[in-house]
Design brief:
It is a single chain. By secondary structure, the chain is of the alpha/beta class. It folds into two domains: 1-50; 79-287, Aromatic compound dioxygenase (Protocatechuate 3,4-Dioxygenase, subunit A). Helices cover 27% and strands 20% of the residues. It is built from six helices and twelve strands. It has helices at 5-20, 28-48, 52-68, 75-82, 85-93, 202-209; strands spanning 131-140, 150-154, 174-178, 184-190, 195-196, 215-216, 219-225, 232-238, 257-258, 261-263, 278-282, 285-287. The protein binds benzoic acid and fe (iii) ion. Residues 107, 109, 219, 221 line the site of fe (iii) ion. Residues 78, 81, 105, 107-109, 197, 216, 249 line the site of benzoic acid (BEZ).
């Protein structure tokens, strides 16, 4: 549709008026962010020639997202995730530094205060799934070990659910441990399996309307903190998983895809698994220096 030059002037003048309304803002960062937001928002509305019905649908969508959000469910972060805004914010704020391990999304299922386990301990705490031995080292970008780093790990069970989704107060498949003097870590987990993001709300309806799947590629979450280093929030993904190219929140990075080897026989720590199958994976983590 073409618009007359009079109409184009009227629309541009409105944008200018709104931009000017922020001129007296004394916080330069706030001013920059809001003026840029207004400019892009007006450009978007003009670009798609947004109808008033569409504007109302958007308001209803956001209202519904607000209503379903509580201290356990954050529909706005989910929206940011499925629009790729979370991953773009991570990209902007975590520039590659040498061979430091890449970051990916937090997801909504991290819980502060997880149980502490020793090196070689079991983070599943009874969660259903195939046992998986996870081991690796944490070093700086010069290859020096990082001892006593905090490693938080959490994941869904084989039914695709995190402990907090059972709503029975259980704590399972989440724990923290610390690296040893050699920067090494190891623990038992369950082999990750794919699961859907929460899709019974407006974000799920949006995905269905555009024919997108709510499934996430199978993964195991890590949060690593060590004094003097950039905090690392990441996951590892399972090589060969069909969903790697189709993750609902765009969280997959090639460097984070790891081989989960099928294993049988004696386990690394002598644990008896009564003939059950198990897997093992190695994930060597490299931390970027703080402020890099
Ligand atoms: C997750 O990893 O569990 C997750 C990440 C983003 C949105 C929903 C779930
Ligand atoms: Fe997850």
């Amino acid at each position: 549709m073409t618009t007359s030059s009079d109409q184009q002037h009227r629309e541009a003048a409105l944008t200018d008026t709104v931009l000017r309304s922020f001129e007296s803002c004394t916080d330069p960062r706030l001013k920059l962010v809001l003026q840029s937001l207004v400019q892009h928002l007006h450009d978007f509305i003009r670009d798609v020639r947004l109808t008033e019905d569409e504007w109302r649908t958007a308001i209803d969508f956001l209202t519904e997202a607000g209503h379903i959000t509580d201290d356990k469910r954050q529909e706005f972060i989910l929206l940011s995730d499925v629009l790729g805004a979370s991953m773009q914010t991570i990209a902007v704020n975590n520039e590659a530094f040498k061979d430091a391990t890449e970051s990916t999304v937090w997801g909504p299922f991290f819980v502060d205060g997880s149980p502490e386990i020793p090196l070689g301990g079991d983070m599943t705490l009874g969660a259903a799934g195939e046992p998986c031995w996870v081991e690796g080292s944490i070093t700086d970008t010069d290859g020096n070990p990082v001892p006593d780093a905090l490693v938080e790990v959490w994941e869904a069970d084989e039914n695709g659910r995190y402990d907090v989704q059972y709503r029975d107060g259980r704590t399972a498949a989440r724990a923290h441990l610390r690296t040893g003097d050699d920067g090494g870590y190891r623990f038992w987990a369950v082999t990750p399996t794919p699961y859907p993001i929460p899709h019974d709300g407006p974000v799920g309806a949006l995905l269905a309307a555009v024919g997108r799947s709510p499934m996430r590629a199978a993964h195991l979450h890590f949060l690593v903190r060590a004094a003097g280093y950039r905090e690392l929030v990441t996951h590892i993904f399972v090589e060969g998983d069909e969903l790697l190219a189709d993750d609902a929140v765009f969280g997959v990075k090639a460097s984070l895809v790891k081989q989960f080897e099928r294993a049988r026989g004696a386990t690394p720590d002598g644990r008896e698994l009564d003939g059950r199958s198990w897997s093992r994976v190695r994930f060597d983590i490299v931390l970027a220096p703080h402020g890099s």
